[in-house]
Each structure stands twice: as C-alpha cells, then as structure tokens.
Amino acid sequence: MMDSTDYILFVPMFFLAIYLWLESQDFGVAIVAPMVAQNEEERKTALNLLKPGLDGNEAWAFLCAGVTGALFSNGRFNIPESTFWPLGIILTGMIVRLAAAFWGNIFQQPLLLRGVRFITIINVISAEVLALELANRDLFTTKSVFGLIWLFMSCIQVGAIYGACKTANPLGERFRATFLVTNILSLMAFIVVFGAWYVLGNREI
Predict the structure, then answer these.
(1) Whether residue 170 has a cis bond before it, omega within 30° of 0
(2) Are 38 and 169 in contact (CB under 8 A)?
(3) How far is Cα 68 from Cα 77, in angstroms, rounded to an integer?
(4) What residues in the chain have per-residue pLDDT under 50?
(5) What is the DSSP string of 99-152?
(6) I want to staple 29 with a disulfide (CB 3.0 to 4.6 A). Which of 7, 78, 159, 161 is the partner?
(7) What is the DSSP string of 10-29?
(8) What's the CA gap between 12 and 60, in Å, rounded?
(9) Res 172: pLDDT
C-alpha cells in the first residue's frame, strides 16, 4: 500500500499516462506496419507515418524519467531500482522509432521493420511494468494482464485508424481491416472480463 508521502508518485505516473496517450498512435503504426505493408513502397509509406519522429510527445517521457530519478535520489519514496530498466527500454524504443522515421530507406527492409515492431511491443510492456512499479502493484494479476491487453489493443486501434486515414488503398484498406478486427477483439475481451467480474459476484479478479 502507498503511504501519504508516496502520493507524489502520481506525478511521474501522470506524465507516463500522457506520454502513452499521445504516443499510442506511433506505437500502433510500428506494431501494425509489418502486417499490412506488403511491398517496399508500402513499407516506406507506413514508416513515413512515424514522422516527425521527435515531437512534443517525447517530452512527457523525459519528464517521467526525470521526476522518477529525482524522487529515487531523494530516498524518502518507495521507488525500487527495478523502475529504471523499463524506463531505459522506453527511451530505447523512442530512439529506434525516431531512427525508423528518418531512415525509412534502411528500416523498410522486412527484418528491420519486424525489429522495430518487436522493440515497440517490448516498449508497451515496459510502460505497463513501469506504471505498476510506481503504483506498487503486481504485474501478474488478472487485472494487470487484461490492462496490458487493452493497452495493446488501444495502440493498434489508434495506429490502424491513423494509417487508414493517411494512406491510399490498398494499404489504407488493410489498416481499416486491422482496426475493425482489433475492435471486435477488444469487445470480446471486455465481455470476458466484465462477465467474469459479474459471475464472481463483483469480487476481485
């Protein structure tokens, strides 16, 4: 449980939440691109969606890292050292997507594009781990797992609808199809979670 002095931890958590909200579009594009882009031109088009690469979104991640580091060095707050490896992965993922945006001719190679997707997936998982570490919550609970699934689905949906709006067919149509599929999967996940919650008599799941 958090004591009264640890409510300051909501500050880096707030910065992290804003970053995830603003960056979800780029997360989604990076995850979906290898699935929907089928040739060199489409892969380059998908990577162009990551531009400008460095914008105001990243400032929130730097604020989260800076405040977390400052609170940790203070020594009065319950911030474990394990919070810094997910922060490092988040910053690494940011650099990789920035490189992919500016050097699309290199990263459009299928293997490198899948590498960007893999690092982005690890990036999203690390963000969830960081949030749970700051909130002093366990990752391996039903709520945490479904929260991570919901975060993935949300990123994919936002990235897919952005790609559908910004690209021409047939690439745009594949982005739209991805958006529709993830919408259905999200609805099914919510039905399962809330169905289990109702069946268990509103108890903790």
Answers:
(1) yes
(2) no
(3) 10
(4) 1
(5) HHHH-HHHHTSHHHHHHHHHHHHHHHHHHHHHHHHHTT--SSSHHHHHHHHHHH
(6) 159
(7) HHHHHHHHHHHHHHHHHHHH
(8) 9
(9) 93
Tokens 């993922």, residue located? 93
pLDDT value of residue 189:
77
- Rounded to an integer, what distance in angstroms lies between the CA atom of residue 63 and that of residue 41? 36
pTM of the complete model: 0.83
Q: What is the pLDDT of residue 31?
A: 93
Place of tokens 């580091």: 69
- pLDDT, residue 78, reads 62
Which pair of tokens denotes residue 151? 């975060």
- Coil, strand, or helix at residue 170? coil
- Give the separation between CA 182 and CA 179, rounded to whole angstroms: 5
Residue 86: partners with Cβ closer than 8 Å, 6 or more residues away: 126, 127, 129, 130, 133
Report the distance separating Cα 186 and Cα 30, nearest Å: 19
Token pair belonging to 78: 């319950």
Cis peptide before 80 (omega within 30 of 0): no
* Phi, psi (degrees; rounded to nearest 5) at 164: -65, -35
Of the candidates 30, 92, 99, 102, which has an alpha carbon nearest to the alpha carbon of residue 61?
92
Cα gap 103→44, rounded to integer Å: 10
Q: Quick check: 100 and 51 in contact, CB under 8 A?
A: no
